[in-house]
Amino acid sequence: MTCGARTRAGTPCKLAAIYRNGRCKLHGGLSTGPTSAKGKARSAANGWAQKRANPMRTTGKLSSADHVS
């Protein structure tokens, strides 16, 4: 069985389908994210750590505590 996706040129993809949805490894789709409570908590903790590491990302300016002399 071949992948049912279409290329940008409009021709069908020629790779073998390896997923249940009939798509190849390139057209199988992205992850929908964590589904368990433990996975969601881990994802939230990772997002919080990234925001703490880069104060410019959330506020757009550095605070006086972040200034290095």
Helical stretch count? 2
Q: What are the segments in which pLDDT stays under 50 over at least 5 consecutive residues?
A: none
Instruction: Please report the total strand number as a whole number.
Output: 0
Mean pLDDT figure:
77
Helix and strand content put the structural class at mainly alpha
Envelope shape: elongated
Distance between the termini: 63 Å
Write the element-wise H/E pattern from the N-terminal end onward: HH
Summarize the main sheet: none
Based on CA atoms alone, the radius of gyration comes out at 21 Å
Q: Report the β-strand fraction as a percent range.
A: under 5%
Q: Please give the share of residues in helix.
A: 25-40%
Kindly list the characteristics that best describe this protein:
69 residues; mainly alpha; elongated
Q: Explain this structure to me?
A:
The protein is mainly α. The chain has a domain at 1-29. 32% of the residues lie in helices and 0% in strands. It contains 2 helices and no strands. The protein has helices spanning 37-53, 55-59. The model has no long low-confidence stretch (mean pLDDT 77).
Topology summary:
Blueprint: H1 37-53, H2 55-59
In short:
The protein has helices spanning 37-53, 55-59. The protein is mainly alpha-helical.
